[in-house]
Amino acid sequence: MIVVMKHGASQEEIDHMVRRVEDLGLKSHVIVGTERTVIAAIGEHRTTDKQSLERGAGVDEVMHILAPYKVASTEVKAERTVVRAGSLSVGGRAVAMIAGPCSVESESQIVATAKAVHAAGATGLRGGAFKPRTSPYSFQGLKEEGLKLLATARQETGLAVVTEVVAAEDVSLVAEYADVLQVGARNMQNYRLLEVVGQTDRAVLLKRGPSATIDELLLAAEYVLDAGNPNVMLCERGVRTFEEHTRFTLPLATVPFLHQKTHLPVVVDPSHGTGHADLVPAMARAGVAAGADGLIVEVHPDPENALSDGYQSLDFQQFAQTMADCRRVAHAVEREM
Ligand code: PEP
Ligand code: MN
Question: Candidates 237, 239, 248, 299: which one to mutate for ligand 1, based on the most atoms within 8 Å of Cβ?
Fold first, then answer.
Protein backbone atom coordinates (compact mmCIF):
# COMPACT_ATOMS: atom_id res chain seq x y z
CA MET A 1 0.00 0.00 0.00
CA ILE A 2 1.00 3.63 -0.18
CA VAL A 3 -0.07 6.24 2.31
CA VAL A 4 -0.30 9.52 0.43
CA MET A 5 0.06 12.44 2.82
CA LYS A 6 -1.82 15.67 2.26
CA HIS A 7 0.00 18.60 0.69
CA GLY A 8 1.62 20.39 3.64
CA ALA A 9 1.31 17.49 6.11
CA SER A 10 3.54 18.16 9.13
CA GLN A 11 6.66 16.17 10.01
CA GLU A 12 4.88 14.93 13.18
CA GLU A 13 2.02 13.61 11.06
CA ILE A 14 4.46 11.85 8.73
CA ASP A 15 6.42 10.36 11.65
CA HIS A 16 3.18 9.24 13.26
CA MET A 17 2.08 7.43 10.09
CA VAL A 18 5.50 5.75 9.77
CA ARG A 19 5.01 4.37 13.29
CA ARG A 20 1.45 3.29 12.48
CA VAL A 21 2.69 1.42 9.38
CA GLU A 22 5.42 -0.29 11.39
CA ASP A 23 2.98 -1.16 14.20
CA LEU A 24 0.97 -3.06 11.60
CA GLY A 25 4.07 -5.19 10.96
CA LEU A 26 4.81 -3.50 7.62
CA LYS A 27 8.07 -1.98 6.41
CA SER A 28 7.97 1.75 5.68
CA HIS A 29 9.79 3.67 2.95
CA VAL A 30 9.29 7.42 3.09
CA ILE A 31 9.47 9.09 -0.31
CA VAL A 32 9.65 12.87 -0.09
CA GLY A 33 8.46 14.53 -3.29
CA THR A 34 8.36 18.20 -4.18
CA GLU A 35 4.54 18.10 -4.09
CA ARG A 36 3.85 15.71 -1.25
CA THR A 37 5.25 12.89 0.82
CA VAL A 38 4.18 9.29 0.43
CA ILE A 39 4.91 6.36 2.71
CA ALA A 40 5.17 2.99 1.03
CA ALA A 41 3.94 0.26 3.40
CA ILE A 42 5.46 -2.99 2.24
CA GLY A 43 4.52 -6.47 3.37
CA GLU A 44 1.56 -8.78 3.83
CA HIS A 45 -1.33 -6.69 5.06
CA ARG A 46 -4.94 -7.26 6.03
CA THR A 47 -7.85 -5.45 4.38
CA THR A 48 -8.60 -3.65 7.65
CA ASP A 49 -5.11 -2.07 7.63
CA LYS A 50 -6.02 0.21 4.74
CA GLN A 51 -9.09 1.55 6.54
CA SER A 52 -7.22 2.09 9.78
CA LEU A 53 -4.39 4.01 8.06
CA GLU A 54 -6.88 6.19 6.18
CA ARG A 55 -8.01 7.67 9.47
CA GLY A 56 -4.56 9.09 10.33
CA ALA A 57 -4.08 12.85 10.66
CA GLY A 58 -2.59 14.42 7.55
CA VAL A 59 -3.43 11.41 5.35
CA ASP A 60 -4.93 12.17 1.95
CA GLU A 61 -5.50 8.61 0.72
CA VAL A 62 -4.26 5.06 1.03
CA MET A 63 -3.92 3.04 -2.17
CA HIS A 64 -2.86 -0.43 -3.14
CA ILE A 65 0.27 -0.66 -5.30
CA LEU A 66 -0.55 -2.86 -8.28
CA ALA A 67 3.00 -3.44 -9.55
CA PRO A 68 4.91 -6.36 -8.00
CA TYR A 69 7.88 -4.03 -7.54
CA LYS A 70 6.83 -1.40 -5.03
CA VAL A 71 9.49 1.23 -4.28
CA ALA A 72 10.69 1.26 -7.91
CA SER A 73 7.21 1.88 -9.26
CA THR A 74 5.93 5.17 -10.67
CA GLU A 75 2.78 4.43 -8.64
CA VAL A 76 4.78 5.29 -5.53
CA LYS A 77 6.89 8.12 -6.99
CA ALA A 78 5.95 9.92 -10.18
CA GLU A 79 8.96 12.29 -10.13
CA ARG A 80 12.05 10.94 -11.84
CA THR A 81 14.96 9.91 -9.66
CA VAL A 82 18.29 11.57 -10.38
CA VAL A 83 21.24 9.42 -9.29
CA ARG A 84 24.32 11.47 -8.40
CA ALA A 85 27.81 10.13 -7.75
CA GLY A 86 30.74 12.53 -7.98
CA SER A 87 30.95 13.93 -11.50
CA LEU A 88 28.10 11.70 -12.64
CA SER A 89 24.45 12.67 -12.66
CA VAL A 90 21.96 10.32 -14.32
CA GLY A 91 18.25 10.96 -14.71
CA GLY A 92 18.11 14.71 -15.24
CA ARG A 93 17.93 16.70 -18.45
CA ALA A 94 21.54 15.93 -19.35
CA VAL A 95 22.32 12.53 -20.86
CA ALA A 96 25.25 10.98 -18.99
CA MET A 97 28.11 9.22 -20.77
CA ILE A 98 30.04 6.54 -18.88
CA ALA A 99 33.01 5.39 -20.94
CA GLY A 100 36.15 3.36 -20.50
CA PRO A 101 37.66 -0.04 -21.07
CA CYS A 102 35.98 -3.36 -20.40
CA SER A 103 38.84 -4.22 -18.01
CA VAL A 104 41.47 -2.13 -16.26
CA GLU A 105 44.79 -3.43 -17.61
CA SER A 106 47.51 -1.00 -16.54
CA GLU A 107 48.01 2.51 -15.20
CA SER A 108 48.89 3.94 -18.59
CA GLN A 109 45.87 2.26 -20.22
CA ILE A 110 43.28 3.49 -17.69
CA VAL A 111 44.73 6.98 -17.23
CA ALA A 112 45.06 7.59 -20.98
CA THR A 113 41.50 6.34 -21.53
CA ALA A 114 40.13 8.45 -18.68
CA LYS A 115 41.80 11.57 -20.12
CA ALA A 116 40.56 10.87 -23.64
CA VAL A 117 36.94 10.18 -22.69
CA HIS A 118 36.91 13.12 -20.29
CA ALA A 119 38.15 15.44 -23.03
CA ALA A 120 35.42 14.16 -25.34
CA GLY A 121 32.72 14.87 -22.75
CA ALA A 122 32.20 11.66 -20.75
CA THR A 123 30.90 12.22 -17.22
CA GLY A 124 31.84 8.82 -15.76
CA LEU A 125 34.71 6.35 -16.15
CA ARG A 126 34.00 2.64 -16.47
CA GLY A 127 36.52 -0.16 -16.04
CA GLY A 128 36.29 -3.65 -14.60
CA ALA A 129 38.72 -4.75 -11.91
CA PHE A 130 36.74 -7.86 -10.97
CA LYS A 131 35.61 -9.45 -14.22
CA PRO A 132 32.85 -12.04 -14.58
CA ARG A 133 34.21 -14.05 -17.51
CA THR A 134 32.39 -16.83 -19.34
CA SER A 135 35.54 -18.97 -19.22
CA PRO A 136 37.61 -19.47 -16.06
CA TYR A 137 40.71 -19.35 -18.31
CA SER A 138 40.03 -15.79 -19.53
CA PHE A 139 41.58 -12.71 -17.87
CA GLN A 140 39.78 -12.24 -14.55
CA GLY A 141 40.79 -8.63 -13.88
CA LEU A 142 43.48 -6.97 -11.75
CA LYS A 143 41.22 -7.05 -8.65
CA GLU A 144 42.35 -4.62 -5.92
CA GLU A 145 45.29 -3.41 -8.00
CA GLY A 146 42.75 -2.47 -10.70
CA LEU A 147 40.66 -0.57 -8.16
CA LYS A 148 43.73 1.45 -7.16
CA LEU A 149 44.42 2.30 -10.79
CA LEU A 150 40.81 3.48 -11.18
CA ALA A 151 41.30 5.74 -8.15
CA THR A 152 44.43 7.17 -9.82
CA ALA A 153 42.47 7.83 -13.02
CA ARG A 154 39.75 9.57 -11.00
CA GLN A 155 42.38 11.74 -9.35
CA GLU A 156 43.79 12.69 -12.76
CA THR A 157 40.45 13.55 -14.37
CA GLY A 158 37.80 14.01 -11.69
CA LEU A 159 35.65 11.36 -13.37
CA ALA A 160 33.41 9.23 -11.14
CA VAL A 161 34.40 5.56 -11.21
CA VAL A 162 31.89 2.88 -12.25
CA THR A 163 33.19 -0.62 -11.59
CA GLU A 164 31.72 -4.07 -11.19
CA VAL A 165 31.39 -6.08 -8.01
CA VAL A 166 30.86 -9.79 -8.60
CA ALA A 167 30.51 -11.19 -5.10
CA ALA A 168 28.89 -10.13 -1.83
CA GLU A 169 32.15 -10.59 0.06
CA ASP A 170 33.93 -8.07 -2.21
CA VAL A 171 31.38 -5.26 -1.78
CA SER A 172 33.11 -3.40 1.05
CA LEU A 173 36.46 -3.47 -0.77
CA VAL A 174 35.03 -2.31 -4.11
CA ALA A 175 32.92 0.37 -2.37
CA GLU A 176 36.12 1.86 -0.89
CA TYR A 177 37.24 2.81 -4.41
CA ALA A 178 34.08 3.01 -6.54
CA ASP A 179 31.59 5.83 -6.93
CA VAL A 180 29.13 3.47 -8.61
CA LEU A 181 28.89 -0.27 -7.99
CA GLN A 182 28.03 -2.12 -11.18
CA VAL A 183 26.07 -5.34 -10.78
CA GLY A 184 26.60 -7.23 -14.02
CA ALA A 185 24.16 -9.10 -16.20
CA ARG A 186 25.28 -12.48 -14.88
CA ASN A 187 24.60 -11.37 -11.32
CA MET A 188 21.28 -9.60 -11.80
CA GLN A 189 19.51 -12.28 -9.82
CA ASN A 190 22.22 -12.79 -7.20
CA TYR A 191 19.87 -11.64 -4.47
CA ARG A 192 22.43 -11.77 -1.67
CA LEU A 193 24.75 -9.50 -3.69
CA LEU A 194 21.86 -7.11 -4.34
CA GLU A 195 21.07 -6.92 -0.61
CA VAL A 196 24.66 -6.21 0.35
CA VAL A 197 25.03 -3.57 -2.37
CA GLY A 198 21.76 -2.11 -1.06
CA GLN A 199 23.32 -1.66 2.38
CA THR A 200 26.09 0.61 1.03
CA ASP A 201 25.85 4.33 0.33
CA ARG A 202 27.25 3.89 -3.19
CA ALA A 203 25.11 4.37 -6.29
CA VAL A 204 24.32 1.17 -8.18
CA LEU A 205 24.23 0.40 -11.91
CA LEU A 206 22.14 -2.75 -12.30
CA LYS A 207 22.45 -4.48 -15.66
CA ARG A 208 19.66 -6.56 -17.12
CA GLY A 209 20.30 -10.29 -17.24
CA PRO A 210 20.41 -11.54 -20.85
CA SER A 211 17.36 -13.74 -20.24
CA ALA A 212 15.59 -11.68 -17.61
CA THR A 213 12.22 -10.02 -18.18
CA ILE A 214 11.70 -6.37 -17.35
CA ASP A 215 9.64 -7.35 -14.30
CA GLU A 216 12.55 -9.48 -13.09
CA LEU A 217 14.93 -6.55 -13.63
CA LEU A 218 12.64 -4.26 -11.63
CA LEU A 219 12.28 -6.83 -8.85
CA ALA A 220 16.07 -7.13 -8.72
CA ALA A 221 16.27 -3.33 -8.36
CA GLU A 222 13.65 -3.64 -5.62
CA TYR A 223 16.10 -5.73 -3.56
CA VAL A 224 18.59 -2.85 -3.58
CA LEU A 225 15.91 -0.26 -2.83
CA ASP A 226 14.38 -2.37 -0.08
CA ALA A 227 17.79 -2.71 1.57
CA GLY A 228 17.81 1.09 1.90
CA ASN A 229 19.74 2.30 -1.14
CA PRO A 230 17.62 4.59 -3.35
CA ASN A 231 20.37 5.35 -5.89
CA VAL A 232 19.78 2.70 -8.52
CA MET A 233 20.17 3.02 -12.30
CA LEU A 234 18.91 0.31 -14.62
CA CYS A 235 20.89 -0.75 -17.67
CA GLU A 236 19.64 -2.36 -20.86
CA ARG A 237 22.61 -4.28 -22.29
CA GLY A 238 20.87 -6.67 -24.67
CA VAL A 239 19.14 -10.02 -24.35
CA ARG A 240 19.77 -13.43 -25.82
CA THR A 241 17.69 -14.33 -28.87
CA PHE A 242 17.99 -16.68 -31.86
CA GLU A 243 19.82 -13.90 -33.70
CA GLU A 244 23.55 -14.40 -34.28
CA HIS A 245 24.69 -11.33 -36.21
CA THR A 246 25.07 -9.45 -32.94
CA ARG A 247 26.45 -10.71 -29.61
CA PHE A 248 23.12 -9.90 -27.94
CA THR A 249 19.94 -8.25 -29.24
CA LEU A 250 19.52 -4.71 -27.94
CA PRO A 251 15.80 -3.96 -27.37
CA LEU A 252 15.52 -0.19 -27.14
CA ALA A 253 11.79 -0.23 -26.41
CA THR A 254 13.01 -1.09 -22.90
CA VAL A 255 13.85 2.60 -22.43
CA PRO A 256 10.40 4.19 -22.89
CA PHE A 257 8.74 1.16 -21.28
CA LEU A 258 10.88 1.46 -18.14
CA HIS A 259 10.19 5.18 -18.06
CA GLN A 260 6.48 4.34 -17.80
CA LYS A 261 6.96 1.77 -15.06
CA THR A 262 9.70 3.24 -12.88
CA HIS A 263 11.15 6.55 -11.77
CA LEU A 264 14.69 5.08 -11.83
CA PRO A 265 17.05 6.31 -14.57
CA VAL A 266 17.74 4.09 -17.57
CA VAL A 267 21.15 3.57 -19.16
CA VAL A 268 21.84 1.83 -22.49
CA ASP A 269 24.95 -0.25 -23.20
CA PRO A 270 25.45 -0.39 -26.98
CA SER A 271 28.81 -2.18 -26.57
CA HIS A 272 27.58 -5.44 -25.03
CA GLY A 273 24.26 -4.89 -26.80
CA THR A 274 25.88 -5.34 -30.20
CA GLY A 275 29.31 -6.89 -29.63
CA HIS A 276 30.74 -5.11 -32.68
CA ALA A 277 32.57 -1.78 -32.54
CA ASP A 278 31.21 -0.76 -35.94
CA LEU A 279 27.61 -1.11 -34.71
CA VAL A 280 28.16 0.77 -31.45
CA PRO A 281 27.94 4.39 -32.70
CA ALA A 282 24.54 3.93 -34.38
CA MET A 283 23.07 2.12 -31.37
CA ALA A 284 24.49 4.75 -29.01
CA ARG A 285 22.71 7.44 -31.04
CA ALA A 286 19.55 5.31 -31.08
CA GLY A 287 19.70 4.91 -27.31
CA VAL A 288 19.77 8.67 -26.86
CA ALA A 289 16.93 9.06 -29.36
CA ALA A 290 14.89 6.50 -27.39
CA GLY A 291 15.24 8.67 -24.29
CA ALA A 292 18.06 6.98 -22.38
CA ASP A 293 19.29 8.90 -19.34
CA GLY A 294 22.81 7.64 -19.92
CA LEU A 295 25.03 5.46 -22.07
CA ILE A 296 27.84 3.13 -21.03
CA VAL A 297 30.36 2.55 -23.79
CA GLU A 298 33.57 0.51 -23.94
CA VAL A 299 36.63 2.50 -25.08
CA HIS A 300 40.21 1.27 -25.32
CA PRO A 301 43.46 2.95 -26.49
CA ASP A 302 44.29 -0.13 -28.61
CA PRO A 303 41.14 -2.26 -29.07
CA GLU A 304 42.97 -4.89 -31.10
CA ASN A 305 45.15 -5.76 -28.12
CA ALA A 306 42.56 -5.37 -25.35
CA LEU A 307 42.49 -8.16 -22.74
CA SER A 308 38.68 -8.31 -22.92
CA ASP A 309 35.93 -7.18 -25.31
CA GLY A 310 38.31 -5.47 -27.76
CA TYR A 311 36.07 -6.35 -30.73
CA GLN A 312 33.32 -4.15 -29.31
CA SER A 313 35.51 -1.32 -27.97
CA LEU A 314 35.85 2.07 -29.65
CA ASP A 315 39.21 3.75 -30.00
CA PHE A 316 39.61 7.35 -28.80
CA GLN A 317 38.83 8.91 -32.15
CA GLN A 318 35.72 6.76 -32.70
CA PHE A 319 34.56 7.60 -29.21
CA ALA A 320 34.99 11.36 -29.69
CA GLN A 321 32.98 11.17 -32.93
CA THR A 322 30.26 9.06 -31.24
CA MET A 323 30.05 11.52 -28.37
CA ALA A 324 29.66 14.46 -30.76
CA ASP A 325 26.97 12.64 -32.77
CA CYS A 326 25.07 11.60 -29.63
CA ARG A 327 25.14 15.19 -28.45
CA ARG A 328 23.41 16.30 -31.66
CA VAL A 329 20.73 13.64 -31.16
CA ALA A 330 20.35 14.70 -27.51
CA HIS A 331 19.67 18.28 -28.60
CA ALA A 332 17.10 17.04 -31.13
CA VAL A 333 15.16 15.32 -28.31
CA GLU A 334 15.48 18.31 -25.99
CA ARG A 335 18.24 16.96 -23.78
CA GLU A 336 21.75 18.16 -23.04
CA MET A 337 24.85 16.06 -23.31
C1 PEP B 1 30.90 -5.28 -18.64
O2 PEP B 1 30.30 -4.22 -18.42
O3 PEP B 1 32.07 -5.35 -19.03
C4 PEP B 1 30.12 -6.53 -18.50
C5 PEP B 1 30.70 -7.67 -18.12
O6 PEP B 1 28.82 -6.36 -18.82
P7 PEP B 1 27.57 -7.36 -18.69
O8 PEP B 1 27.43 -7.68 -17.24
O9 PEP B 1 26.43 -6.55 -19.23
O10 PEP B 1 27.87 -8.56 -19.55
MN1 MN C 1 32.87 -5.88 -21.33
Answer: 237
Q: What is the mean pLDDT of each run of 10 residues along the chain (337 residues)?
A: 93 96 93 88 86 93 91 93 97 98 98 98 98 93 98 98 98 98 98 98 98 98 96 98 97 98 98 98 98 98 97 98 98 98
Cβ(102) – ligand 1 distance below 6 Å: yes
| Closest approach atom of ligand 1 to CA 235 | 9
The alpha carbon of 102 and the centre of ligand 2 are apart by a number of angstroms equal to 4
Q: Which numbered atom of ligand 1 lies nearest the CA of 132? A: 5
What is the reported pLDDT for 155?
98
Which amino acid is it at 168? A
209 Cβ contact list (under 8 Å, min separation 6): 185, 186, 188, 189, 216, 217, 220
**Is residue 185 lining ligand 1, measured as CB closer than 6 Å?**
yes
The whole-angstrom separation of Cα 324 and Cα 337 is 9
> CA torsion sign, 295 to 110 to 84 to 118?
negative
pLDDT of residue 48: 86
Which of 130, 269, 313 to probe ligand 1 with, by most ligand atoms within 8 A of CB? 269
Rounded CA separation 114/154 (Å): 8
In this structure, which residues have their CB less than 5 angstroms from ion ligand 2? 102, 309
- pTM recorded for the entire structure: 0.95
Look at residue 33 in the predicted model and tell me its pLDDT. Answer: 83
Burial (CB count <10 Å: 0-12, 13-18, 19+), residue 325? middle
Instruction: Using the atom order of ligand 1, give the atom closest to the CA of residue 128.
Output: 3
Segment (H or E) for 22: helix 11-23
